Amino acid sequence: MSIASSGPITTNREPIATCRTYEEAQKTVDYLSDHGFPVRGTLIVGVGLRSIEQVVARMTYLRAAGWGALSGAWFGLLIGLFFGIFAATAVSMLTVMLWGLLWGGVAGAIFGLIAHAVLGGKRDFVSESGLVADKYEVLVESEHAARAHELLGRENEQWRKQ
């Protein structure tokens, strides 16, 4: 494996562990830190990255209006809060905030419906996106690599004894 080919940030760093999950890589760095290893500059590098999009629901006009109303209500509340700061009394401040919430929700619902209609069925689903790696490598500065291998060797010996 060529470390330098990954870019300047990985130059002068050596891989000391390869982990199947990000949590395992975190535990490796945490173990090193707990044992006095200078972890500053340590990298956890995802190798073999893939983009994954999980479909969670079908997008309907009702759902588009609901999501639009929710986001519009938050924006309306923020605007109402801003204008409410200049209100003379607490009651008038609350009134301005509630009107902002109401009209923001209405405007957001209308916008959500229009946006969904304009797409014309080209994206009728709701999804969540993320990056997933095939494996994670822990890289440390070259000058500290021997110490890291020594500490991780102790960890493996302790694990085998259990």
Brief summary of the model shown:
The protein has 162 residues and is an alpha+beta fold. Helices cover 52% and strands 22% of the residues.
Helix content: 40-55%
- Which sequence of SSEs, written as H and E, runs from N to C? EHEEHHEEH
Structural class estimated from helices and strands: alpha+beta
Let me know the number of strands: 5
- Globally, the shape reads elongated
Descriptive keywords:
162 residues, alpha+beta, two-stranded antiparallel sheet
Q: What report would you give on this structure?
A:
The strands form 2 sheets. The chain has a 3-stranded antiparallel β-sheet, with helices on one face. The chain has a two-stranded antiparallel ribbon with strand order 3-4. Helix content is 52%, strand content 22%. The protein starts with 12 loop residues before the first strand and ends with a helix. The protein contains 4 helices and 5 strands. It has helices at 22-34, 61-84, 90-119, 145-161, and strands at 13-19, 43-47, 50-58, 125-132, 135-141.
List the helices and strands and how they pair.
Layout: E1 13-19, H1 22-34, E2 43-47, E3 50-58, H2 61-84, H3 90-119, E4 125-132, E5 135-141, H4 145-161
Antiparallel strand pairs: 1-5, 2-5, 3-4
